[in-house]
Design goal:
This protein has helices spanning 2-8, 12-22, 25-41, 49-73, 75-79, 96-118, 120-141, 148-156, 159-168, 173-196, 198-204, 209-233, 235-238, 244-266, 270-296. With 302 residues, the protein is an all-alpha fold.
């Protein structure tokens, strides 16, 4: 019997693969990318390597811990959604004890790195982000209101602030401007996904906006938030934080985003909604990359 159980046990490589999947690697990659951009924007020259290296590792570990904890809390919801039913937390491959231990170890390691190798401010801000996402958003906001994405977006918008604090030791107006850009980007990004996954969300019972208010209302909100986002993305140039390289990039990227949102509003299809969602990810990556390039290669009107 014991021999049979042993033979049926997953290999260490399989367990490692399952645990890695819980960290939502693609989502965390974007989080860490925005945090690293915040680090480089915080200094006029190249920042010291220690806060960049250890800050990146610490933020990555805590973000991964939050993602794993989210998978645990939402395992029953994930199990009825096609997009997430494969997760090892949802299909029962990993138990609650293993996930809690894994998440706790990642969070503790990340917090220790940030406190000892970066600075206490970054540790506390990162811990607050963990609580905001894993507890406030996942446990309370998400099942309670269709505005969950808007309010909960505050946690997802923190990475550049964390990166800025890791290098400079403080939080500036410029860091909060980066926060505002991601905060306003989150609703059109996520609602585009929720539109073509609406049947999944109906099954899950979550009050996502397309479920509670319908497709047309959600598409109007996507367009309005995209326009508001466009206005805010011009602020780095208006306030002298960036130059013409960023401004030109923002004009092009915002123009494409608005075109997607307008097309989605006028003629909805699941394919177009999926394209809008994918473009939103590319949009944020390129916008922040443009900020970085502009930071080191500034061009200004004479």
């Amino acid at each position: 019997m014991d021999h049979q159980v042993l033979n049926n046990s997953p290999s260490p490589a399989r367990v490692a693969s399952q645990l890695y999947a819980l960290t939502k690697p693609r989502v965390v990659q974007l989080i860490v990318f925005c945090a690293v951009i915040g680090m480089f924007l915080a200094e006029p020259t190249l920042p010291a390597w220690q806060p960049v290296l250890f800050g990146t590792l610490g933020i990555w570990l805590v973000a991964s811990a939050a993602a794993a904890f989210n998978c645990l809390v939402e395992q029953k919801i994930d199990a009825v959604m096609r997009r997430t039913a494969w997760r090892p937390s949802a299909n029962g491959e990993l138990g609650a004890a293993a996930i809690i231990t894994f998440s706790g170890v990642l969070c503790a390691a990340g917090m220790w790195l940030l406190y000892t190798q970066v600075n206490p401010l970054t540790m506390w801000l990162t811990f607050g982000t963990f609580v905001g996402y894993a507890v406030v958003y996942t446990l309370f906001l998400k099942p309670a209101t269709p505005q969950n994405i808007v309010i909960g977006g505050a946690s997802g918008a923190m990475p550049p602030v964390l990166g800025w604090a890791a290098v400079s030791g403080h939080v500036s107006v410029e860091a909060m401007l980066l926060f505002l850009i991601i905060f306003l980007w989150t609703p059109p990004h996520f609602w585009a996904l929720a539109l073509y996954r609406v049947e999944d969300y109906k099954q899950s019972g979550l009050p996502m906006l397309p479920v509670t208010h319908g497709s047309e209302f959600t598409r109007t909100q996507i367009l309005l938030y995209t326009l508001l986002l466009t206005a805010v993305t011009f602020l780095p140039y208006v306030l002298g934080m960036s130059g013409l390289i960023y401004l030109a990039s923002a004009v092009v990227l915002d123009g494409i985003f608005i075109a997607y949102a307008w097309a989605l509003k006028r003629n909805y299809s699941d394919l177009l909604s999926r394209k809008t969602f994918r473009y939103s990810i590319l949009y944020l990556s390129l916008l922040f990359a443009a900020l970085l390039v502009d930071h080191y290669l500034p061009l200004h009107f004479i």
